[in-house]
Amino acid sequence: MGWSGSGFLVLAYGLTLVENNKYINYSKYLNLFGALLIAINCYYYNALPSFVSNLIWSVMATLTIYKAKRKGGFFVKPKLKV
Predict the structure, then answer these.
(1) Which of 67, 70, 76, 79 is most buried, with most CB under 10 Å away?
(2) How far apart, in whole angstroms, are the C-alpha atoms of residue 73 and residue 40?
């Protein structure tokens, strides 16, 4: 579970580095699910500092998704700079 969460977080970071911004919305959800999986794994192994930091990461990802949904829908298309 922890390895999957780590993979999601690395993939989310990689998607933010891609020149094409159409994947940026997926990175928000990958951040959320990755942090939740790592938090569950850390709680299981009693790694409380990592559990708390990943729980905070999950809350930040949730707030980011909520803010995007309030602005204009489930998947908001990012504005491309020309």
Answers:
(1) 76
(2) 29
